[in-house]
Amino acid sequence: MNEPSLSALLPPYRILLLGYGHVAQAFLPLLASRSEWLSSKLGARLVISGIGTRSTGYYIHPRGIDAATLALETHPFQRFAESSTRMESAEAFIQEGSARNANALIELTTLDPRSGQPALTYIRLALQRSLHVITANKGPVAHAQFELQELAHRHHVQFRFESTVMDGLPVINLSEYTLQAVGIQSFRALLNTTTGIVLRMIEQGYTLEEAISQAQRIGVAEADPWYDLDGWDAAMKTTILANTLMDGQLTPDLVEREGIRNLSLDGICAAALAGTPIRLVSTAHREHGLLIAEVRPQPLDTGDILHMGLGTGGLLSLETEAMGTITLIEHDTLPTQTAYGVLSDLIAVIRQSKHYL
Amino acid sequence: MNEPSLSALLPPYRILLLGYGHVAQAFLPLLASRSEWLSSKLGARLVISGIGTRSTGYYIHPRGIDAATLALETHPFQRFAESSTRMESAEAFIQEGSARNANALIELTTLDPRSGQPALTYIRLALQRSLHVITANKGPVAHAQFELQELAHRHHVQFRFESTVMDGLPVINLSEYTLQAVGIQSFRALLNTTTGIVLRMIEQGYTLEEAISQAQRIGVAEADPWYDLDGWDAAMKTTILANTLMDGQLTPDLVEREGIRNLSLDGICAAALAGTPIRLVSTAHREHGLLIAEVRPQPLDTGDILHMGLGTGGLLSLETEAMGTITLIEHDTLPTQTAYGVLSDLIAVIRQSKHYL
User: Going by C-beta distance under 8 Å and a sequence separation of 6 or more, which residues neighbour residue A68?
Assistant: First the structure.
């Protein structure tokens, strides 16, 4: 490990952080806790050049603040803002950051998941300015993955989105680095936590409304829960997985989608009592060369691999040609998980752009 | 995809194949089936420059034979040998291959797993000659991982061993590419297939001897089954995993090891009847900074994550700081799995040595 004094001599790697919600607030201390290790591995000193949010303003710091130092502050955002220049918009923030040699934009804004906006605009702009982009937003990826990857390629930068599907469970990197040639033929997955929690509460005797407000209280369900319950969240994730793992060209509206809105409470309870609880299942397979992706409620019997995913944060089971069936399970739902996906992408970006072995 | 005529124009990537048992025989057609895709992705044409085994001789082909062409032969080894120069030893094979610009040695010999010899000698020699080395042999890795990685580093080549632990389930590459900063605190795993099969047969009423000969008949157990049943195979794999995932410096003799030899048949059956079947469990964790790794039989109750691994090819469950618990399951035991691990390493070697994005 390098001494702190040595890592201060390393060249800076400058990061713009757009959005400062839960994920960003978990990301900063995670980055700080790994910063010494990262510096020694990557040969770079991680510096936050800018932080911006719609509600509290967009700030570019004249020199940037060391990630480890910033995370030690009680109110990192305020501390950062006090010594920075305020920009008038997210666009100006990206342009000014780029002019000051930022290397990467980490895009963690809240957004309209259906359209992917305004994140999509920000990501396009950053890529055009030759910034690497890491996003935790499903929308832009599900709607425009290939356009954005192509744009990144043209500008010799990377576009990464590990945390959009199963938080930091490295399904995207896995496919890129280690499952390239395995021949993925199909997958089945449990990708949406909210429907799992709501269905489990209904099984325990709650009404749909009670279950939804409980899920909102514990911070799992959104203010508009139907984005999850009608299967949109799962459809976005299924789109990204199918396109990434199976060379698809899908958009979310091409995913056959059925949510849990029309299930009867009696039916849900009866299935659970019979030992085959109903969960929202994502699937993709090929039929006559055509990629078919679906999201729909299915009863899971005890012999079903997906049964192992009941009560977990998510499960992905792949049918592969060379390796047979492989299953990955994310057991917990921790606030650091999405942040870890972002960190994992950042490491991949720095490694590849440095040809780091 | 490139046309075959185009890929013929690509520069050759020359491979020496040492050992021609089950794994090598599954590897050649797998490589061939992916060769067009690999050529287009990697910008190289995969060529077999040499094949050697102790029993049938070591051969270097004057120009090398295209991997895809060779795999089409009914008897690839004979076809290769007929048009090649025979070397007097494995050492001469490696030296001559290296002199003829081979890029990588794929080391798949059978060996004494306890000492790691003679594979260890071959691997050292190849690394000293600046060949990348990929091995499916646990012995050399468990005994000398750091020496060999250091040697590889000095000669600017890579030493890879994905298939030594869970065949092609990408646990080693996973840790290198995507779980670097996750903070792995401990793991528990089912890593040995033979003990799983033998214990299951005992649960079904067979004697230990009957179970062993059945496992030998289906090709799972070795002629000397005690390497598996006394926990040596699991101890080697546990060593490699602990060293790779948890920055350990273990050798197999530092792993606390207890096999299934001393279990009573009645005890095995009673545990299974109680719903808590006994399996050989690998674990590693830190105590006061010290890495403790163990292999021993344990009853698995239904709430235990390892219970999901009963009847599968293997299971690895990681406790991590940033991602909580993550589990990977290899459900099947297919002949292509180890070969896929080798192919996955070969892709990683070529990508990294070409700084391929």
Answer: A32, A35, A36, A46
Q: Please tell me which residue, A218 or B157, carries the higher pLDDT value.
A: B157
Interatomic CA distance for residues B287 and B278, integer angstroms:
25
Determine contact, residues A50/A60, Cβ cutoff 8 Å: yes
With contacts defined as CB-CB under 8 Å, which chain A residues touch B38? Answer: 181
Best residue of A158, A174, A323, A327 to probe chain B, by most B CBs closer than 10 Å: A323
> What pLDDT is recorded for position A95?
97
DSSP-derived letter for residue A305 is G
Partner residues linked to A53 by β-bridges: A57
How many contiguous H segments (helices) and E segments (strands) does chain B have?
Answer: 16, 13
- Note the pTM of the prediction, 2 decimals: 0.91
Rg (CA), chain A: 21
In whole angstroms, give the CA distance from residue A14 to residue A36: 16
DSSP code, position B44: -
pLDDT, residue A40, reads 82
Would you say residue A296 has pLDDT above 80? yes
**Model pLDDT, residue B169:** 82
Q: What percent of chain A stands above pLDDT 70? A: 95
pLDDT tens digits along A93-103: 999 999 999 99
Cα separation values, B239 from A316, B258, B306, B316, Å: 28, 15, 19, 14
Q: Taking CB atoms and an 8 Å limit, are A322 and B339 in contact across chains?
A: yes
| Chain B residues with CB-CB distance to A332 below 8 A | 323-325
Cα angle at A340 between A339 and A346, to 5 degrees? Answer: 95
Strands (E), A54-119: 57-66, 85-87, 104-107
